[in-house]
Amino acid sequence: MKTVYSSEHILRNAKTELTGGQLVTPYECPQRADYILSAIKDAQLGEIIAPSQWPRNWIESVHDTNYLTFLDTVWQRWIYAGNQGEAIPNIWPSRSMTSQRIPRHIEGQLGYYSLAGETSISEGTAEAAWASANVALSAAEILNQGEKSAFALCRPPGHHASHDQYGGYCFINNAAIAAQKLRFDGAKKVAILDVDFHHGNGTQEIFYQRDDVLFCSIHGDPMVAFPYFLGFADETGQGKGEGFNLNIPLPRGTSYSIWRLALCRAMEKILEYGADALVVSLGVDTFENDPISFFKLKSDDFTNMGETIATMGLSTLFIMEGGYAVEEIGTNTVNVLKGFNNHHV
């Protein structure tokens, strides 16, 4: 299995995250990609290649152009306004303020384009996000060239980014962009399987009214887990998309035996759908020692996860999402990919 990786991920190196009323060192850090890359090399998983540069319109096929312009300029405008620290929003268009006008001031725009306050924007964030999108597109192109699988080592991750909002460490939705490219390249139906601990709210929002991309997510119950306001079982799609969105929220302490039942349910939905290609939003924060999650998967379980996904026999693109137990993230990620490789038919 080929891996696409960009060293430009290091440009996203924020120093602050708002957690528990404090500014702390972010969980989403450059070392995540370093550990994964090292584990891939140690496992001799396959060739590691750099991404190609893709035209902006590929990303604009998923994201709002005004939002992308904001992302490109926010850091310079934040500094020009006289701010000393990293950019963190402090005001949102809340339920009682719903005019939806976009403010001109950068402070107001931060609130308009963000969905959460924990993710600060630092110098180099936009550049790293664009590089991460190029990784996803280049990995999708590998499938287009006839390979049966590929791994996009994306950082920053993407599944929380909606068509015009960032948050949850995500700025550009890599899985959505990859799915859109697979559709453009000839796949009539694409399925996205999100196995990250946190619900892929951004991916759901992007495809919620479409029937050509099926979204299935297994995640922590949003009543008690980020992103809180999306990811419930009764969210099944809208309009043409009705019936093409499957959420399987699970409770605190879920073990792999229970989690795997949810995986089999999602796989049954994907096979019934008749997908031509599969995009896996691969978060390994379901791990028992992950610092911001509450499932109880063990390292060996990730091997079985990969083996199980492989039984669908679909051309499969793995997109890296979350996972914050840094010392184990490489092992757990590679276990999924090796398990898939060993059993893919």
**Contiguous helical run count:** 10
- Could you tell me the number of beta strands? 10
The number of domains: 1
Q: Calculate the terminal CA-CA distance, rounded to whole Å.
A: 14 Å
Question: What summary fits the major beta sheet?
Answer: 8 strands, parallel
Please provide a written account of the structure.
The chain has one domain (2-63, 123-343): Arginase, Chain A, CATH 3.40.800.20. The chain is built from ten helices and ten strands. It has helices at residues 31-43, 56-60, 65-80, 106-113, 125-144, 174-184, 201-207, 256-273, 299-310, 326-343; strands at 2-4, 17-19, 22-24, 48-49, 149-152, 190-194, 213-220, 245-250, 277-282, 315-320. The strands form two sheets. The protein has an eight-stranded parallel β-sheet with strand order 4-1-5-10-9-6-7-8, with helices on both faces. Strands 2-3 form a two-stranded antiparallel sheet. Strand 2 (17-19) and strand 3 form a beta hairpin. The longest helix has 20 residues, at 125-144. The model has no long low-confidence stretch (mean pLDDT 97).
